[in-house]
Amino acid sequence: MEYINVNNVSFAYDADPVLDHVSYKVNSGEFVTLTGENGAAKSTLIKLTLGILKPKTGTVQLAKKDAQGRKLRMAYVPQQISSFNAGFPSTVLEFVRSGRYPRQGWFRRLKAHDQEHVQKALEAVDMWDYRDKKIGELSGGQKQRVIIARTFASDPDLFILDEPTVGMDDATTAAFYELMAHAAHAHGKAVLMITHDPESVKAYVDRNIHLARDKAGQFCCFEVHLDHKEKGGLQDA
């Protein structure tokens, strides 16, 4: 099922055009990466997709329902959003558990399945051993991992992630990619992730959408089809 449909979108900051006739789609059950050189307006494209920015031309459509006909739940993790101060009262475990309550209802006790989901989320970002620490005591990179874990624990239908693995070591990064691939392929989630390191993730993803400059210098969208381990040809998206 199609969760994202961006069609022929162009965008400019004042008189400075940055995106030109970009089109792409993301379906349920897919793990899709978004790449491009530094300054390629990847985060701008994500903000257009989310409705934070409005396109100059073209359309952006997000599904209202998930593949089961329920209201679509979406989670967005921007770059480096960790801003908890030292006095933030919650422990890591309490904070990540809170991601389950909107799904279960604020006054319902979490079940064993919920607790397992929370543990897997923390293990995937290598923060389970820190579960009893106060969030305000963590480093900036550790706080970012905890936010990612809470996002996963909330069990959205659509994940939109802007370079979430910055600051993670290789083992933690691989575990995170495996978790997102499992969420997509086994549970029908849709994952769109900006990455600066497409080689490290290509074994886990279905497609890579690449922003490249056109002759006028604006960024256009191309789609690199991946067969999990082998890259195909570059095609207009």
Automatic annotation (TrEMBL):
Q: Which SUPFAM superfamilies match?
A: P-loop containing nucleoside triphosphate hydrolases
Keywords of the record: ATP-binding, Nucleotide-binding, Transport
Give the CDD domains listed for this entry: ABC_Metallic_Cations
Q: Enumerate the GO terms in the molecular function aspect.
A: ATP binding; ATP hydrolysis activity
Q: Which InterPro entries match?
A: AAA+_ATPase (IPR003593), ABC_transporter-like_ATP-bd (IPR003439), ABC_transporter-like_CS (IPR017871), Metal_Ion_Import_ABC (IPR050153), P-loop_NTPase (IPR027417)
* One Pfam family linked to the record: ABC_tran
ABC transporter domain location, by residue? 4-237
The residues forming a coiled coil are none
What's the domain of life for this entry?
Bacteria
Q: Know the name of this protein?
A: Mn/Zn ABC-type transport system ATP-binding protein
Query: In the UniProt record, what gene is named as encoding this protein?
Result: znuC
